[in-house]
Design a protein that fits this description.
Elements lengths: L39 E3 L5 E3 L2 E2 H8 L3 E5 H15 L3 E6 L6 H9 L3 E4 L2 H9 L7 E3 L6 H10 L3 E4 L2 H13 L4 E8 L2 E5 L1 E4 L9 E2 L4 H11 L3 E7 L3 E4 L3 H21 L5 E3 L17 H18 L6 E4 L3 H4 L3 E13 L3 E6 L8 H5 L6 E2 L8 E7 L8 E9 L7 E5 L20 E5 L2 E6 L4 H7 L3
Helix pairs in contact: 2-9, 5-6, 7-8, 8-9
The structure holds pyridoxal-5'-phosphate.
Amino acid sequence: MSRSAHPAGPRHADVLPEGHYSAPPADLNALDQKVWAETVTRGDDGVVSVAGIPVTRLAEEFGTPAYILDETDFRSRARAWRTAFGPDADVFYAGKAFLSRAVVRWLNEEGLNLDVCSGGELATALSAGMPAERIAFHGNNKSPEEIRRAIGEGVGRIVLDSFQEIVRVAHIAQELGKRQRVQIRITVGVEAHTHEFIATAHEDQKFGIPLAGGQAAEAVRRALQLDGIELIGIHSHIGSQIFDMSGFEVAAHRVVGLLKDIRDEHGVELPEIDLGGGLGIAYTSADDPREPHEIAKALTEIVTRECEAARLRTPRISVEPGRAIVGPTAFTLYEVGTVKPLDGLRTYVSVDGGMSDNIRTALYDAEYSVALVSRSSDAEPMLARVVGKHCESGDIVVKDAFLPADLAPGDLIAVPATGAYCRSMASNYNHVLRPPVVAVRDGDARVIVRRETEEDLLRLDVG
Ligand SMILES: *Cc1c(COP(=O)(O)O)cnc(C)c1O
């Protein structure tokens, strides 16, 4: 096991078992449907297509590297979450996973709500017509300007993250002559990653207000006294890339315990509970994610059971999947530039992007898969490492992967499951230009976020 630090806290990191690639797959040309977007197939000529469009044509038309996003898959995942939770719950897509105006429109059409955590995400959401009342505003250090804008626009809820913010939001709402609906984000002492969770008494992290030591109860006490805010519920987000539901079980138990204490102390039953996001996806064939309907059933049962035991009315549940909706819908298309065999070790395959378009491998030791997509090959498998073009030896996209031994410069390779936290975390390191996002659907391809240009770079540099 290995885990590296993340600026947003360890809850956002992944812990992945090592040795996924102990043996080469039986067929290097096969595409595991689990890790590829819905409409991806390999044709009889060996070329991989998405939405009926060969990747060779996409590369010609849009260049490489490029994120290719399957709109059909995005919509069907969004719809599956919406349907699974039904009309008595709310699904908020976590915009930080990947946000663009096209995505906002798809979410709107599919009936999902939207989480934002900065003024930039809020501006994107509003500019694409997401109704403000369907937006939730998150973040552990929202600026007064961001709070003022959010309240002024009429966002559906602000998720309060600290004692100071409770007062700050209440004060700004009052200045604006409004009463803002809010939730309080608490940390319940559950750390969940992938296949395990740890229940702890304390949470050593920057997000939320600890349940431990009566701090969350005190936050509720204060929030209930302030005129500028209306406390509608409690929020908990326990981790990311989670497959095991038992962490949610402990979290729900603890949140409901707080709801019960609030009822006993204040005589109020808060109407909502938000269990956050963090549901896992398949990055490699070794991952086995749950379907939205299983997750919805499990979460609803847990909350209902806990509330019955506490003799509470079951609150309205909301969830915030980001990765689970957008992650599997996109792959990154790269062109191979150099192939460097290191005797007795492995072959380094350099592509025309790298850590600037996918930082997750460097940041979290994340594992990815990769396939040759511009042709099929009958060559032997070779142990490869896919690396980028940056001046950094940690510039790795896929740490261990098998690719055909006849791989050559000019071949196109694709890394699946890069829809979440890749474009949204992309950088300009080495003044490399950020790739476009190309949405494909039913034989059509269109750019939804264009490729950065040198002009873009120079426009920011005012000399
Ligand atoms: C990051 C985050 C999410 C989404 O997490 P995923 O792993 O993408 O599902 C949801 N809610 C909150 C509060 C988050 O910080």
